[in-house]
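Memo to structure team: turn this sequence into structure tokens by end of day. - J.P.
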Amino acid sequence: MSKPNLARRVADAAEIALANQKYVTFIDVVTGLRWLHSRHVDTWRQGRAGALAELAAVDDDRLLQAAALLRDWAEAKGLRPVDTPYVAGSRDRRELRFTAAHPQEAFRIHWLSPDLSEARARRLTERQSKAPDLVVVAPLGPWTCATCADTGPYLIMEEDRPHCLTCADMDHLVFLPSGNAALSRRAKQESGLAAVVVQYDRRRKVYQRHGLLVEERALSLAEERCLADEEVRLRRRERDRERRAEQDVEFQERMAAEISRLFPRCPAERAREIAAHAGQRGSGRVGRSAAARALDENAITLAVVASIRHLDTDYDGLLMSGVPRMEARDQVRGTIDSKLAEFRGVA
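Reply from structure team:
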């Protein structure tokens, strides 16, 4: 890839991050470039990789080049640099390394929007520099503790080796499964020592949160607090649900307007249907991506393409008849291109 092309891609990824969160990090860019998946970042933040570069799809020099291009873009935009430490979610809380050989400062910088108030910028910096939660893994297969050669239902990584909770002095903690956000939050607040329990999902290829390990006393106190204000929290959840529904409607209206701008011959009702489908909360569709929320042209186009593929071609029928997915996409590509041209008003 040429340097001008990479510079454009870095700028695109950075613009999306800045629009969504008012700051940009090197992690935002490399995940936006798809050089790293979020699961790789999670593994690294848990302290289970020597350097982030070990998990990347490109070499160290390419990562360094992306960091330099991000700096050039950010300085041209007038963003404010803040050096932010990265520490591992392991007991040693060691400093995380982006690459094994290069200086780390180029990768640690967070670029803040000048629109951020001093108070919000300070809170953001404090939150970003805070050490991540301790992470305990519920392994899928057999394993052996590096200290006692025994095993157990959970392991925690120390010095890049797995240890049982007894050897890690954490076997007095009790498991609180996910599902009750208020109880989990309060139990963690009350507990002097706590850890997030994760397990690898082979199908999705990500570590998923299963619950917390907390002190038993903390769990009892949290349960008492939750019982005392249960009615208040129910009313708050209802208000939050209504607010999120209003936000969804506003976002889908903006997306429909952007579809109509990019594809002026697309019927208004069709544009609204595409936006409603692609922008549904929790759907995981392209309309819920960071790029789409920033009304990125490519993401909006992908939502329109998905609609055409399913409604204006025989793509679904090809899949049902056993045609491989990529082959089916190749067969309907001409129809999709014609429909896109029609929606754009191209003769």
